[in-house]
Here is the input.
Amino acid sequence: MKKTSLLIMSILLCFVFHAQVEAKPLRVVIIETAPLPIVANTKDAFLDELTLIMPEHEIEIEVHNAQGLEEQARSIVQTITEQEAPDLLVAIATLATRAVYNFPAAAEIPTLFMTVSDPVKEGIVTSLGEHSTSNITGETHVLDAKVKLDMLDGLLKASELEEPITIGLVHSDYPSSKSSVESLLALESQYDNVKFVTVSTAYVEGTSGLDAMRDGVVEALKEKTETSGVDTYWLSTGPLLQADQLINVIYKETKLLPIFAESIESVQQGALLGVVADEESIGKSGALRAKRILSGEKANSMPVTRMEKYTIGVNVSTAIKMHIPIPSSYLKLSKDHIYQ
Here is the structure.
């Protein structure tokens, strides 16, 4: 009887110990590139969805923000690698992702990136659809440059232009912004209705950098308008896109409106056409990958891909001002994102 009691006690202790092991919280560390709306909204959507799809797990969240500073991003990564490795490291936006990916001590930490426009140019993979050699995965949220140009070309053909429209490619030299512009320039010769002119400003680190970049690009656009006859402009992805009152300030100084923007908010403010993966979709999609990693899959068992869900927006008032008719097919695609 005594032996039986001891056996039962041992079994119970094993169950208790097993339950304690099972109950150990999952540690997720998030590194945000900067305090920008796209970063914050993506993080919030990611955490909401992760909590929803993993209700049986306790998840400890630790958030760091690099404040738009590359050195600070590297310092954060170094501090993380000097501690016990998290179950998942999440890098939001290019600067934070670059800091993680290029830090050798972080190579084995399971890593997920979000809101990185060009993981190929960042060296994470050699082409989309491939698996990274480092323990990292994620999706680019930016639509393929050719698809964007095809959509714009459809609008321009409907307006029956007599000569190409000169478009200023407005950007900073932040990695994702430069990459977006380079992709567009590489395809320019395939489109008879567009002529591109680069309009750039230096990337300024820190939270005060947005206003400085906005002012810099306004001056650059004014100069290009005088020297190159810019008719309109294209707002590329990157921190500059988040600058306060960017479109309004540019219009006040140049009387130009953007023909394309990689932000639905920019379409609301006056851009003719916009195509983008919204923050909620980015966060939710990232959470699905995170669940697989936290459930035991290696991060790089999942290929780095492009997101499949995108939001299209059009601004009817801008179309009228620019004398560019919007085909009914575009209006149908835009659904709830038609502005005026």
